[in-house]
Amino acid sequence: MDLREPRQERSRATRRRLLDAAVECLASRGWAGTTVAVVAERAGVSRGAAQHHFRTREDLVTAAVEYGAEERMAHLRSRPRDALDARAVVDLLADLYTSPLFKAALHLWVAASADPALRDRVAPLEARVGREAHRLTLELLGADESRPGVREAVQATLDLMRGLGLADLLTDDSPRRRPLLAQWAAMLDAALRG
Amino acid sequence: MDLREPRQERSRATRRRLLDAAVECLASRGWAGTTVAVVAERAGVSRGAAQHHFRTREDLVTAAVEYGAEERMAHLRSRPRDALDARAVVDLLADLYTSPLFKAALHLWVAASADPALRDRVAPLEARVGREAHRLTLELLGADESRPGVREAVQATLDLMRGLGLADLLTDDSPRRRPLLAQWAAMLDAALRG
Question: What's the mean pLDDT in A145-155?
């Protein structure tokens, strides 16, 4: 009887619970309130088991933001292949950038900006996630980046989403956001058509 | 002989030095690294004098971000009255949102999001600064907000700037930002013309 497989599955499930709890914890309590011990308790995992998976808070939190981003982007990528219109894409992105995952990433970026060792780990992660988000947005729009201005319009869309995520941090910004997204989708659509 | 006037002036100069030092400190060391004592030392002001002006770190930091934002916006407002083209306005705003002042504000917003008492102070400040930035951008563009889509295009411009400020936090984002701003100015210009 081979016991390795179930043990590996249990270990993967524990790791995933820790990653999900780290995103929630970071989004609601910020960097200072997110330690391996706090996340382990939230995940219902012993501190020893948590430390087996993630030696430091830095290991845990950077893994959690990367895992969360990959998972959300894989989910968006798995949608039916037809290109969506600009309005639908802009709405999907706005949901992503006002989610707890974005808030968690924001806490991590800001903590890294005042901590050189953390910055060295987070800057490549931010660049990787940014490139992936750009590629995904192009795919969802079915946009052709070789046309003049398309690359920059897609980048601007993602920077706008980061700004909207930030504007949603302290208060519910959704009433202001809705007409803005409609206007932005119209401007993006015009830019994509050239 | 009336000694009150010079004493008041000295007091104002001390207060201003503390506010400037608080913005610098917050931008470079973050919320956790910004205490009244650290800011007083950076400003060359005794801790007692600093505490006379600002009893708590919360008092000092919120006053510093508000003062910095008002000063920068008053400076932009004092420019010659002619409306600028979209490109010039977008460049001025990008400079503002990639400055140490924006980084300081970002640290304050993010700290407030995980601290309910601080959030109650910072949310109205964020709303006030946001309204002022909107009004200023309309003035600089000479834009007519009663035309359909103009209000939302100006809001999107400011949200984009917040996103660009965030993208400049961990690395120098200026090479990517330049062509993006040119494209955005063209899109904004088209939206303002209707």
Answer: 95
